[in-house]
Design brief:
The chain is α+β, with helices and mostly antiparallel strands. It has helices at residues 8-13, 17-33, 74-77, 79-82, 102-139, 148-175, and strands at residues 38-42, 45-50, 53-60, 65-68, 86-87, 92-94. The protein folds into two domains: 8-118, Aspartate Aminotransferase, domain 1; 146-178. It is built from six helices and six strands. Strands 1-2-3-4-6-5 form a six-stranded antiparallel β-sheet.
């Protein structure tokens, strides 16, 4: 397995020429749509991070190229627009000779950014709820460990069972004729 590339340029340097041209064009398109995006490597693929969230990525494959919105719902949201392309739940596949149109890339990125904006209030609410629950959990003494009383009871039952077995064994030995 090849080593994880250090940069998008390093990744593209190892890609066959036809796919490299298509992916360089896709890279320029993404940066034109989201100029403040930071280039990064995520899941060993070239990607673009915007305000802390990866919003797009791409790969060269043996068959062609793939675009990744880094969301399981973006492609489903734009199902009518991406119907002409081969796809999985997380990737849109295209041929290097037929790159993704700039208008489609813009729709994909706009939809992905909208998902992140919609998720932000829910994430904040969940973080607040978790923070509020922490003191109550601590006060109740619930740390996820078994209580000492529970352990003592279990130990007592084991000792009682062992005592009964020993007594039964001793009784059988005494009843044996010598």
């Amino acid at each position: 397995m090849p080593a994880k590339p250090e940069s998008i340029d390093a990744y593209l340097a190892g890609v066959p020429a036809d796919r490299r041209v298509a992916l360089q064009q896709l890279r320029r398109t993404i940066l034109a749509i989201v100029p403040r995006a930071q280039e990064c490597i995520s899941y060993s693929m070239p990607a673009f991070r915007h305000e802390g969230h990866v919003v797009a990525g791409f790969l060269a494959t043996t068959q062609g190229c793939s675009y990744f919105p880094f969301s399981g719902t973006t492609l489903a949201t734009l199902a009518d627009d991406v119907r002409a392309y081969s796809q999985t739940k997380s990737a849109l596949h295209f041929e290097p000779s037929k790159p993704l149109p700039k208008a489609l890339v813009k729709k994909l990125i706009t939809a992905r950014l909208a998902e992140e904006v919609a998720r932000a209030p829910a994430k904040k609410a969940a973080a607040r709820a978790k923070k509020a629950a922490a003191p109550a959990k601590k006060a109740a003494g619930r740390t996820g460990k078994a209580s000492t009383a529970g352990r003592a009871t279990k130990r007592t039952r084991k000792l009682e069972a062992a005592g009964k077995r020993a007594a039964a064994s001793a009784g059988r030995r005494a009843a044996r004729p010598r």
